[in-house]
TrEMBL record:
Source organism of the structure: Agromyces fucosus
Enzyme nomenclature, EC number: 2.5.1.141
Family the UniProt entry places it in: Belongs to the UbiA prenyltransferase family. Protoheme IX farnesyltransferase subfamily.
Enzyme class per UniProt: transferase
NCBIfam families the UniProt entry points to: cyoE_ctaB, PRK04375.1-2
Protein name: Protoheme IX farnesyltransferase
Lineage: Bacteria, Bacillati, Actinomycetota, Actinomycetes, Micrococcales
GO function term, MF aspect, one: protoheme IX farnesyltransferase activity
Length: 306
């Protein structure tokens, strides 16, 4: 009898926890994590030192809400293809843990909150850039590009570049060349990051009718495009050295990690053209490590005297 009573009392708590977990999943927390990784170092570079702790926290909170809103909108828009793709069948709108209405209200609420938050606690330029990031991801990528062109991830990736502009604007109140170079680094990095993932889930995207490059082109062509964008990414990362006056730490990390990143993309291409078994997720995870190390150096370099 006591066990039955405990079970009845526990059930509402379990329901609340599952609901909160579903809302969290709707925001795509792994994407948020990566976006925050590039925001904080950008703010340190903009300040040429450590910005105030409150400004840093406020910007990261606002950025997380903004990215979470965009992710929730994307889950709502893509709920039909998420039901088809094995990789996304655990998302809340597919499992039924959240209704379409709940997801849409949450997405709007979080997006509005992010803009107001950034406007009040950072500045309205950062807030405007946050709104632009949401619109780019939701309208430009999710509604217009994703299902129409194999270049979807190239131009749709613009939204993922916005956090560096938001972080810089939060500190300085304006924009200059260094944040645009950081923007371009992420823009060029996105295809060699995402296209290997699309190679692994090629059948998923084909079944959903999404024309990712791996669906409409062969492995060799995808591998070649990954190489070209990787070279462009590394070249752009070196351009930051003279433009932002980067020191020894960043310069060394940019060269060493850049060589490693390019090597991994060439390895993928060589296996593809030889019709051998490829490991695209090695490049996918490697690209995350590359960007994380590069931006870690962006954040450390201004704090050192050399």
């Amino acid at each position: 009898m006591q066990a039955a009573v405990e079970t009845r009392h526990d059930r509402p708590a379990m329901t609340v926890r599952r609901k909160l977990a579903a809302y969290l999943a709707l925001t795509k927390p792994r994407v948020i994590e990566l976006l925050l990784v590039v925001t904080a170092p950008t703010m340190i570079l903009a300040q040429q030192g450590l910005p105030s702790l409150w400004l840093l926290i406020a910007t990261l909170i606002g950025g997380a809400m903004s990215a979470g809103s965009a992710g929730a909108f994307n889950c709502y828009i893509d709920r039909d293809i998420d039901r088809v793709m094995k990789r996304t069948q655990g998302r809340p709108l597919v499992t039924g843990e959240l209704s379409d209405r709940e997801a849409l209200v949450f997405a709007y609420g979080l997006g509005i909150a992010s803009i107001v938050w950034l406007g009040l606690f950072t500045n309205w330029l950062a807030a405007a850039l946050s709104l632009g990031a949401i619109l780019l991801y939701v309208v430009f990528y999710s509604l217009i590009l994703k299902r129409r062109t194999a270049q979807n991830i190239v131009w749709g990736g613009v939204a993922g570049c916005m956090p560096v502009l938001i972080g810089w604007a939060a500190v300085t109140g304006d924009l200059s060349w260094p944040p645009f170079i950081l923007f371009l680094i992420i823009f060029l990095w996105t295809p060699p990051h995402y296209w290997p993932l699309s190679m692994k889930y090629k059948d998923d995207y084909a079944a959903a009718g999404v024309p990712m490059l791996a669906v409409v082109r062969g492995r060799a062509q995808v591998g070649l495009q990954v190489i070209l964008y990787a070279w462009a990414t590394v070249a752009c990362s070196l351009l930051l050295i003279p433009i932002a006056g980067m020191g020894l730490v960043y310069s060394t990390v940019a060269v060493v990690t850049g060589v490693w990143f390019i090597y991994e993309t060439h390895r993928l291409y060589n296996l593809a053209i030889r019709h051998q078994q490829v490991s695209p997720m090695r490049v996918f995870h490697g690209s995350i490590a590359y960007l994380s190390l590069l931006f870690l150096a962006v954040g450390i370099d201004p704090l050192l005297p050399f």
